[in-house]
Amino acid sequence: MVQLDDLDRAILKLLKQDARLTISELAERLNRPESTIHFRIKKLIEKGVIDRYTIILGEPLKPKSVVAVYIETEIPVIEDFLEKYINHITKTLSMLPNVLAVARSGRNGIIALIGGETEEQIEKFVDDTIRTLPSLRKVEVFPFTNIVKGEDVIGFLVDV
Amino acid sequence: MVQLDDLDRAILKLLKQDARLTISELAERLNRPESTIHFRIKKLIEKGVIDRYTIILGEPLKPKSVVAVYIETEIPVIEDFLEKYINHITKTLSMLPNVLAVARSGRNGIIALIGGETEEQIEKFVDDTIRTLPSLRKVEVFPFTNIVKGEDVIGFLVDV
DNA sequence: TATGAAAGACATCATGT
DNA sequence: ACATGATGTCTTTCATA
């Protein structure tokens, strides 16, 4: 187990907001010496608490419209078919640039996050690429009308 | 409209993988002078293509189990009630630390991403906190059995 | 817009309290 | 955990093409 104190948490919170804050800026805001901040961050990285640094892309590259899609396949008699078929679908979806994220859900379900320029374009994508897949039991589409928490997850996920 | 060339895209791709790459490292990998890389990044930030820099948290802080929940309310006679009620639910959910993301979906739907230590703990949370809400027409739970694309979205969303 | 060079700011490390 | 100083590296700026 990893134990974090208030200082660790304060550093993490600030870096989440802006990972380009310099050690001296962090030191000043948190009223601690630079050497301490440097040491803490080093430890946080070593312990894997900080996994990596990244950038969030902004409006110009973000899809204007996003939906979540739940796909459920029929369950075939031979279990091995199911596994291979689900894997095939997830891999195919993963390669498409407007598919932001893909997860398996249970034994015969898939959830995908899909972005596009308009709702219509996404609907077309769902109709052409997903609903045409054979042996589906269910396709549910949940539009993202307004993201209330975690809004910049889209800029995080979008491909360049 | 923002036009990106190959160099811009290459910089963005590298920074997405590791935002701590120095300008000199980027310059070396892309065979361009440091001043050029510096200039491009400055422009990308000005244009809003790069929104901000952040950290992704690692295993120690990530919930081991994640589900998506779709909530749909009844539609009351008075439209204004619906709006206020939905807003109330989304705001309440947003404040909870194990609720990773919340979005409105259509007029009377909400999608939430929920993390926890075990599936059972999440089930309990859903039963206690969500299913007890009045006037719900539907609550659907989609477990994330295995994330295939966008895996580190969890470490991106998790609260510190 | 791209580049090269120079100046200043910064992270990093060792040592000691 | 904190302080200090030495070192090398990086960012930033500016003049120029």
User: What is the helix content of chain A?
Assistant: 40-55%
Backbone structural class of chain A:
alpha+beta
Oligomer description? homodimer
> How many domain regions of chain A?
2
Reported for the largest beta sheet of chain A, the result is:
4 strands, antiparallel
Order of helices and strands of chain A: HHHEEHEEHEEH
What is the strand tally of chain A?
6
Taking strands numbered 1, 2, ... along the chain, how are they ordered across the largest sheet of chain A?
Answer: 3-4-2-5
| Mean pLDDT level of chain A | 95
CATH homologous superfamily caption of the largest domain in chain A: Lrp/AsnC effector binding domain/regulation of amino acid metabolism (RAM) domain
Low-confidence stretches of chain A: none
Q: Tell me the CATH topology of the largest domain in chain A.
A: Alpha-Beta Plaits
Q: Could you tell me the strand content of chain A as a percent range?
A: 25-35%
End-to-end gap of chain A: 36 Å
Descriptive account of the structure:
- Chains A, B: One of its GO terms (molecular function) is sequence-specific DNA binding.
- The structure is a homodimer of 160-residue chains.
- The first copy, chain A, has 160 residues and is an alpha+beta fold.
- Chain A folds into two domains: 6-46, Winged helix-like DNA-binding domain superfamily/Winged helix DNA-binding domain (Arc Repressor Mutant, subunit A); 59-157, Alpha-Beta Plaits (2-Layer Sandwich).
- Chain A contains six helices and six strands.
- In chain A, a hairpin with a 3-residue loop joins strand 3 and strand 4 (109-116).
- In chain A, helix 2 packs across helix 3.
- The longest helix of chain A is centred in the middle third of the chain and has 17 residues, at 79-95.
- Chain A is elongated.
- Chains A and B meet through helix 1, strand 1, helix 4, strand 3 and strand 4 of A and helix 1, strand 1, helix 4, strand 3 and strand 4 of B.
- Chain B binds a DNA duplex (17 and 17 nucleotides) through residues 22-24, 32-36, 38-39, 42-43.
